[in-house]
Each structure stands twice: as structure tokens, then as C-alpha cells.
UniProtKB/TrEMBL annotation:
This is IclR family transcriptional regulator. The keyword DNA-binding applies. The keyword Nucleotide-binding does not apply. SMART domains: HTH_ICLR.
Length: 260
């Protein structure tokens, strides 16, 4: 197998595993995975069968749906010491949810996406259910991804938006000019605002969390119904987000660095 073919195979496996993870814990059918990944159904089935042999995915006997397998749990446990910050962020998320009354989330950047790692439910009884642990969005979509994108260097932002047309999947509000305007507003305020651009009536706000190299690697965000994000509340919500994001940044910078 040539290096190009090997790279294509690895890429397909990675795409499949991410697609399966997006449907945890209920699982997903082979046909749905084929549609979501734009791969032929026989190819998807063949790859999944091989992954199942290695313990990387499981197939439910009762409904034929695929879920992540036990070997991924073991591998993830070993990697957690280096990458997992959910435990460190627990108190931060709880305090953010308590202060705002909204559900608070921790997301991490993974390449051109963000993935939600943890959630703390707020006290307000009406909630937005756009976010959940494991869901992924492209940078610039949802408040966490917009917060992270806005704090990247201009050259990185331009490179990303030059190769990515978010409006194709996410609608005209995610055209380049509109993203640029929201980046400018985020930089000015320090926090991002998603005014129901993904789901009608569901608002979100986000603030970047930085690593020891001052790179925006994670984000805190809050989501809720539109009435909870009025003009007279947003400034206070933004201050809470920025305070807790700074707190988590400092906690992370004090954390001992693992040696490669």
C-alpha cells in the first residue's frame, strides 16, 4: 500500500470514529454513518468490522448500532493525564453555572473543530439543548468555537476562513464577512455571543481559555433561551465568563507539565 493510500485509509478511520462518537451513547447505524461521512456503505461496513475486531468499536446485537469500543476507553485513559482538564475545570463550571443560572460547558479545540468535554447544568428550568458532551462544531460556529477562533493570530484566521466556507452547511449568517464582524466584536468585548444562529431561540456566550504558550486551546461557554440573554444581562454574563476563563487559565498554567 502506498503512503498516499495509507493516509487515505487512516483518514477514513478517523472520520468514522468521530462520527460514531457523535452518536454516543445511543449508537448509529451503518447506513447513517455512510451518509454522514460520504463513504460507500460497503466501505463503512468493512472498516467498522475491522475496528470491531480490534475493540475500537462495538456493535449492539439487538439493533445493529455502532458505539465506541472498550479499547478506545483504555487508550483514552492513558492519554487523559496529558490532555484531560475536565476534572480541573469542575469547580469552575459549577461556579459559572451557579453565578449565571445557565448551563456551563467546557470545550476543547481539536484541529479545525471544537469538541464539548464537560457540562454543568444551570438552575434556570428552561434550557437550551444545542450542546452536549461529545458534540463537535467547526471553529467559528457556536460561541466556544467563535471565542477560540477570535483569539488566534490573524494569519491563522485568514488561512482557516480561506479554506473553509461555513455558510455552505451553517447558513448565510456564517459567510466570511459576518464571521469577520463577530470576530471583531469578540475581540472588543473579550467574549463571544451566538445570537441563536444554530437553533432558533437558543443563545450562547463563550470565553477562551489559554494554555502555557498563551494559545486559545479551550473555551468556557454558557447557553440558554433567548430571554435570558437580554442586553441588560449580557454584560454581567460576559464578566462571569471572563473571570472564570481567567481562573481556569491560571489553574492550567500552574499544573505540572507532563514530559513527552
Amino acid at each position: 500500500m502506498t503512503s498516499g493510500a495509507q493516509g487515505q485509509l487512516v483518514g477514513r478511520v478517523a472520520v468514522l470514529l468521530r462520527a460514531v462518537s457523535a452518536h454516543e451513547p445511543a449508537g448509529v447505524s451503518t447506513s447513517d454513518l455512510a451518509r454522514e461521512t460520504d463513504l460507500a456503505r460497503p466501505t463503512v461496513h468493512r472498516l467498522l468490522a475491522t475496528l470491531a475486531d480490534e475493540g475500537l468499536v462495538d456493535r449492539h446485537r439487538d439493533n445493529g448500532r455502532w458505539t465506541l469500543g472498550p479499547e478506545l476507553y483504555l487508550l483514552g485513559s492513558l492519554a487523559a493525564a496529558r490532555y484531560d482538564i475536565a476534572e480541573l475545570a469542575g469547580d469552575v463550571l459549577r461556579d459559572l453555572a451557579r453565578e449565571t443560572g445557565e448551563s456551563a460547558y467546557l470545550s476543547a479545540r481539536r484541529g479545525d473543530e471544537t469538541v464539548c468535554l464537560a457540562v454543568e447544568e444551570g438552575s434556570f428550568p428552561l434550557r437550551s439543548h444545542v450542546l452536549h458532551v461529545g458534540i463537535r462544531f467547526p471553529l467559528g460556529v457556536a460561541s466556544a468555537g467563535l471565542a477560540i477562533l477570535s483569539h488566534l493570530p490573524d494569519r491563522d484566521i485568514d488561512a482557516y476562513l480561506s479554506r473553509t466556507d461555513l455558510s455552505t452547511e451553517w447558513g448565510p449568517d456564517h459567510a466570511r464577512d459576518d464571521i469577520d464582524k463577530r470576530i471583531a466584536a469578540t475581540r472588543l468585548a473579550g467574549y463571544s455571543v451566538n445570537p441563536a444562529l444554530i437553533v432558533e431561540g437558543s443563545w450562547g456566550m463563550g470565553a477562551a481559555v489559554f494554555d502555557q504558550r498563551d494559545t486559545p486551546t479551550w473555551a468556557l461557554s454558557i447557553t440558554g433561551v433567548e430571554s435570558r440573554f437580554r442586553d441588560d444581562r449580557r454584560n454581567g454574563l460576559g464578566k462571569s465568563l471572563l473571570n472564570q476563563a481567567h481562573r481556569l487559565t491560571q489553574l492550567l498554567r500552574r499544573r505540572p507539565q507532563s514530559r513527552s
